[in-house]
Specification:
Blueprint lengths: L4 E5 L3 E5 L13 E5 L1 H11 L3 E8 L3 H12 L7 E3 L6 E5 L8 E5 L16 H6 L3 E5 H4 L3 H16 L3 E5 L4 H4 L3 H15 L2 E3 L2 H7 L9 H16 L3 E9 L4 E10 L2 E4 L3 E4 L6 H15 L3 H15 L11 H8 L10
Parallel strand pairs: 1-4, 1-8, 2-6, 4-5, 8-9, 9-10, 10-11
Antiparallel strand pairs: 2-3, 6-7, 11-12, 12-13, 12-14
Helix pairs in contact: 1-10, 5-7, 10-11, 11-12
Length: about 350
């Protein structure tokens, strides 16, 4: 099938990473790059051959110039990046090791150009008309009322234009503050009613949406709750993962996809972890690619799980695997050998 035009609405953040396994208190150097959920998703989709665009706002200064240059290097269409404001949000990453988890510390986020964008800054109708699908996420939804207003207005424009709305729940407790799930729920429900493709699992249904089940096993909870979410909110496709973290720096990942009142599951993949940040975005990009290309359910969820696995093997937030590399990983060919 022909490749598609897909956009994401979201913030571009500067990632400042401590080298190796040092803590911020130990280190005296940092490596910077630019990322964000939307950046990761549309960059991955551009590597699969689609046109991936980002809808965002960046400062009109050298820092904003550096961010735009980085987006272009990732293959992202920057035609819908507007300029203004003063700041880029930042986060500091300390790599975990063994029993010490990785740690992310945010700085200057609420003052960023994206999060202070005024009403009327984006041409939503034109953007929606030029795209076949637009991706949104729960991290963006958590920022403030102004960003939520932009997000919902663009999603409504997408629906008017006949495009697909993709929503990744991505609930982050630290971003919602004291109100937590109660504050988040009405905003999540508004986005779910507009969404065609959703990334979530049973924990989102239980905690964010306040649903209930008598099942104790995670997979049984999933099989009860996800069809109810799809029916309640009119969602065509719901996908997500279950992850297990082991003590030897390996993780296990199993993906699921619910569509047409049927579940499909990937194999459980176990692998070593180099950098976990952004792996969920890689899985989401695989689901989106499979859906837009018309893959069978089983192929789509296996492709997405393999994309998520490969994202754990490279440094940085942004998935770097091509479609051919992911298909090769699905075939489990000569893992770890040298390609010649």
């Amino acid at each position: 099938m022909p490749n598609r035009r897909i956009a994401a609405f979201g913030e571009v953040m500067m990632r400042l990473q401590v080298p190796g396994y040092e803590t911020l208190a130990q280190a005296d150097t940092l490596k910077y790059s630019f990322s964000g959920t939307g950046v990761n998703v549309v960059s991955a989709l551009s590597r699969y051959g689609h046109v991936g665009a980002l809808v965002t706002r960046l400062p009109d200064n050298p820092l904003g110039d550096a961010a735009v240059a980085y987006l272009r290097k990732l293959g992202i269409d920057t035609a819908h990046v507007v300029r203004g404001g003063k700041y880029v949000g930042m986060y500091f990453l300390e790599n975990g090791f063994g029993v010490r988890p990785s740690r992310v510390t945010y700085s200057n986020r609420l003052d960023s150009s994206f999060n202070t964008a005024p009403e009327g800054i984006y041409d939503f109708e034109n953007i929606a008309a030029s795209m076949e699908a637009i991706h949104f996420d729960g991290i963006t939804l958590a920022m403030n009322d102004g960003v939520r207003s932009h997000m919902k207005a663009l999603a409504e424009a997408v629906k008017r234009q006949g495009g697909k709305v993709i929503f990744d729940c991505n609930y982050r407790p630290s971003l919602w503050g004291e109100g937590g799930y109660a504050q988040a729920k009405p905003h999540y429900e508004a986005m779910l009613r507009l969404a065609d493709i959703v990334m979530m699992n049973e924990k989102d249904a239980l905690l964010t949406l306040g649903m209930a089940t008598d099942q104790q096993d995670r997979e049984e909870q999933l099989k009860e709750l996800i069809p109810a979410v799809a029916a309640n909110y009119g969602i065509s496709v719901i996908a997500g993962t279950h992850r297990q973290i082991h003590r030897n720096n390996t993780h296990s990942l199993r993906g699921f996809l619910y569509k047409g009142e049927r579940f499909a599951f990937s194999d459980q993949l176990t692998f070593s972890v180099y950098d976990r940040i952004g792996a969920g975005d890689a899985f989401a990009s695989g689901i989106i690619h499979g859906e837009l290309q018309g893959f069978a359910l089983e192929k789509t969820v296996r492709f997405a799980a393999a994309a998520g696995m490969l994202a754990h093997t490279v440094p940085g937030d942004t998935p770097m695997a091509t479609e051919a590399e992911i298909l090769r990983a699905m075939e489990q060919s000569a893992a770890g050998d040298v390609e010649r």
